[in-house]
Amino acid sequence: MIETRQLTKRYGDLIAVNELNLKLAEGDVFGFIGPNGSGKTTTMRMIATLLNPDYGEAYVCGKSIYTHAEQIRRLVGFMPDFFGVYEDMTVLEYLEFFAAAYRVPVHKRRKVCEEKLELVDMAFKRDAMVNQLSRGQTQRIGLARVLLHDPQVLLLDEPASGLDPRARIEIRTLLKRLGELKKTVIVSSHILPELADVCTRVGMIEKGRLIVDGYVEEVMRKARQRILLHIRVREGAEAAGRLLEQMDEVESVSQNRDGTLCVTLRTGVDDYSRLPARLIEAGFALTLFREEEVNLETAFMELTKGLVQ
Fold this sequence. Notes:
A hairpin with a 2-residue loop joins strand 9 (201-206) and strand 10. Helix 3 crosses helix 4 and helix 4 packs across helix 5 (135-147). This protein has two domains: 2-214, P-loop containing nucleotide triphosphate hydrolases (Rossmann fold, 3-Layer(aba) Sandwich); 225-293, Alpha-Beta Plaits. It starts with a strand and ends in a 6-residue tail after the last helix. It has eleven helices and 14 strands. The chain is elongated. The chain is α/β, with parallel strands linked by helices. The strands form three sheets. The protein has a six-stranded mixed β-sheet with strand order 6-7-8-3-9-10, with helices on both faces. Strands 2-1-4-5 form a four-stranded antiparallel β-sheet, covered by helices on one side. Strands 12-13-11-14 form a four-stranded antiparallel β-sheet, with helices on one face.
């Protein structure tokens, strides 16, 4: 559905996007992760044919951004991080205006607009003035707008930027629905927890280079160099820690204020079944034994260097 080949964009001496290679299939929800200024928006604008690259190629549904720009725009829904609204329109009038711009047939426009309002849970605001909506509601109306022509590809640039916690949760729910509809979605963000639950794949971009690209589980595994265990015993934490330090699988042991032992295993060790068995054998009563999960935040910190343009 989306493919880029050495896609490059320069602004003078600044290389905003540097030979980016990406391939997404139908139904992929791709989390595009990177700090502000890393090249996310520039990449999305080139895929949407709103910005010409200096080098490289991109295809959307098999069509080149150079030779089939008009056709690609009919296949793509692009939602920028900030967009204006018309103050003298109701929500329904606003959507009908854009439905006309998307050339949705007259006899279908009202029905299509109503359907998209239902999809984004904004039907109760159909007669409200657009300029009276909250930031979260405006974002949802913006998402309804880019869905009016039923695009196969969605490019969502920081859709949860500036939203309160409840609104961010609502946006995440909407993104899950889009994945279920088999849309190919690129959603950019620098707020990593927002992407963890909704994306099937993630890419990490730094100084214009795509340094990580893979399915979420693969990225997590790549980021986890050593396993960290949290262990708590009913009594004798210090003695338990000394016992664990003597085991071949263990690299180091530290103790939190609450008595929890933080046990770091050696690189490459993924079988730690001997540890609880040894503790129990030595007479310690285990009250906690769990592996610390790797999330997108820890993966990002492990796999990137913190470089900006």
